[in-house]
Amino acid sequence: MTAALLPAGLSPGAAIFLAVVSFLTSALTAAFALGGGVTLLAILSLFLPIQVLVPVHGIVQFASNFGRVMVQRRAVEWWVITPFFVGAVIGAAIGARFVVALPEPVLHLTLGVFLLIVTFARLPQLAAIGPLGLGLTGLATTFLSMFVGATGPINVAMFSKIFADRRSLVATLAAITAIQHALKAVAFFALGVALSAYLGLIVLLVVAGFAGTLAGTHLLQRLDERIFRLVLKVILAVLAADLIRRGITGLW
């Protein structure tokens, strides 16, 4: 990819690095149902301005999850989708009224704290959830995603007890997450967020992410999950600490 297709300030080397990250994080989510979106968000935050971070991440994650749904469509539990979608529409509409008003240091702090919470906190798991609960979950998590970009770990915590079959969990979460990111993209475009300068980078990350989806099941299931998650937690903690540092410095 030539520098002319990249946003100002982003070198071809950095773009290639981000493509590799998109591949690996997509593969991670395809194999384990979580972790990829949060990791990609954290690393993108080191290269992109905070004003376009969540919109770019949302578009890339929509494409990644949509591709995962296509690959794993037979395992999706479609009965979950409609009530979740209704709540997600409301959550995106409410969140869009607030997110652009937050100053950059507050967004940095929010992202950093969110990363620490979803990485180390013991999030509650729901044994059962009906249509109303699914709608409220869609509203709450989509509203939150307007600010923090990635709510995959929260979705996993809430849905892991609903599906006994891991394939159904991974595929259905891909459909749910695709809905959230699609709604976020619509909301940001409606707010006039301009991403034309980032089109080349977005296409590169989307292509790399789909390749990661295809490779994830075959590659990452062979790794020792305990070691992998330990390394992942360390990386996320370091990135979260840096986000918090930047947020506190900006507030001062």
List the SSEs and their pairings.
Blueprint: H1 12-32, H2 36-44, H3 50-71, H4 81-96, H5 104-120, H6 131-148, H7 152-159, H8 166-190, H9 199-219, H10 225-251
What does it look like?
It is a multi-pass membrane protein. Belongs to the 4-toluene sulfonate uptake permease (TSUP) (TC 2.A.102) family. The protein has about 250 residues and is mainly alpha-helical. Helix content is about 75%, strand content about 0%. It is globular and about 45 Å long.
Strand content: under 5%
Query: How many extended strands?
Result: 0
On the 0 to 100 scale, the average pLDDT is 80
* General form: globular
Helical content stands at over 70%
Poorly predicted tracts of residues:
none
**What about the largest sheet?**
none
Q: What is the gyration radius calculated from CA atoms?
A: 17 Å
How many domains would you count in the coordinates?
1
Q: What are the main properties of this structure?
A:
globular; mainly alpha; cell membrane; membrane
Give a nutshell description of this structure.
This protein has 252 residues and is mainly α.
